[in-house]
Amino acid sequence: MSSTQISANAVLDLIKNRRTYYPLSKDLGSLTTERINEIAKEALQHVPSSFNSQSNRVVVLLGAEHEKLWDITTETLKAIVPEANWASTEGKMAMFKGAAGTILFFEDEAVVKGMQEQFAIYADRFPVWATQSGAMLQHTLWVALEAEGLGANLQHYNPLIDAKVAETWSVPETWKLTSQLVFGGKTGDAGEKAFGAVEEKFKTFGSA
């Protein structure tokens, strides 16, 4: 299988450029629905998973379907958020709805259970490994959308919206919602990002 040779610095630059953006617009520039779906499918197929278990699942919502998700989330939160706090929550929901799309990330619990049964000695590790693979997929898609000029932010309104999401988009009952990546056109710069001293987080031993 052929591959294009790129430098580690090019990859690191993409990672460094990935930031959290609020708010986002519906402007996708020249990016088409087909291209967004292609990016999502390619990432889904190629992000690694333990024992090649492939437990990640994705649903891409665009246009009216994206807006429907945030209407569902708004309705769900309205029922539980105190009235005194509702104004800020309502504003946040409107902000997410104002973006162009949302990628829903799921973990297929049937796959995880199957791996636990097949490799019982590692049964307690498969849920952890599935979460790690899911995190890699989220990051990969976030970086990829940034590389296409879009902005994004990652949300976690699960499990509050799980049942309604499953009902609305016919999601199999074994798919557990883990996060929501909101994306769209950038309307401003990302905020400042602080970094702790790398010396406190890194160790190395030996030499090449």
Task: Write up this protein.
The chain is of the alpha+beta class. It contains 7 helices and 5 strands. Strands 1, 2, 3, 4 and 5 form a 5-stranded antiparallel sheet that branches. The longest helix is centred in the middle third of the chain and has 22 residues. 25% of the residues are buried.
Features:
208 residues, alpha+beta, 45% helix
What is the topology?
Blueprint: H1 8-17, E1 24-25, H2 33-46, E2 56-62, H3 64-78, H4 83-97, E3 101-108, H5 109-118, H6 126-147, E4 151-155, H7 162-168, E5 175-186
Antiparallel strand pairs: 1-5, 2-3, 3-5, 4-5
Task: Give a quick precis of the structure.
The protein is an alpha+beta fold and 208 residues long. The chain is built from seven helices and five strands; from the N terminus they run αβαβααβααβαβ. The model has no long low-confidence stretch (mean pLDDT 97).
Briefly note the structural class of the backbone: alpha+beta
| Helicity level | 40-55%
Helical stretch count? 7
Shape summary: globular
Overall mean pLDDT stands at 97
Calculate Rg over CA atoms: 19 Å
- Report the sheet with the most strands, covering strand number, pairing sense and barrel closure: 5 strands, antiparallel
N-to-C SSE string, H for helix and E for strand: HEHEHHEHHEHE
Distance between the termini: 29 Å
Portion in strands: 15-25%
* Uncertain residue ranges: none
Count the E strands.
5
